[in-house]
Amino acid sequence: MKYIYANWKMYLDFDESNIVVNQLIQKNFNTEKVEVVLFPPSIAIADSIKATVGGPILIGAQDVAWADKGAYTGAISARMYKDLGCSHAIVGHSERRYIFGETNEDVRKKIEACLDIGLVPVLCIGETADDKENNKTEYRLKKQLLKALDGLDINKQEIIIAYEPVWAIGSGEPCDPIQVDETCMWIQNQIKQYTCNIIPILYGGSVNEKNVVTYLASKNIQGVLVGSVSTKFDLLFQMILSAEKI
Ligand code: PGA
Description:
With 246 residues, this protein is α/β, with parallel strands linked by helices.
């Protein structure tokens, strides 16, 4: 199984999201080979779910609040997304960590909120350019994994990891596929401390319709989390077809 996850961030508004979703539901792909999850902006999630219900496309949230309910202005809980019909939620995306100041502790609480309610968390981890320059990539990833997963029972629950080097996101400078493959293998080994399951590990950071094949064809990379390029229907569908052929 290969995973094509589309993180639309704040790129598409309500109407634009609906247009891409409606184009995509006209198309067929082999669900035994590819899992497609769209992460529209929160205002478009309800309509995206209505349009895709019963079909092969899944819908996820870009972020969740760690609390379940209450006085949290502007926040939306994992339960609320689950009740709407979401299956997944991105947790700890680097834009949440570095622009909105989310800590490893916040990320941990959000993972727990997702697992408690039955949303599959897509845990994003990745080193910054600074980490990379200072040979701290493994240190950063180890720390993010430890804080997110230590002591959690994830043997019976699904969880996805997205390896997203911060310097590669939105920069047009994707990480070399061989390097990504090695890092994903390293992550898979690290994860053995937390679960006996094999966890799908995706790569994200300047993936496009051309370079996607090199990632998907790599042994240790199970899929991709794509940002800007995934907002364009034809390019997104091209990536889905590429995944199907692998
Ligand atoms: P990008 O974003 O594909 O636009 O680089 C990836 C991500 O943030 O998940």
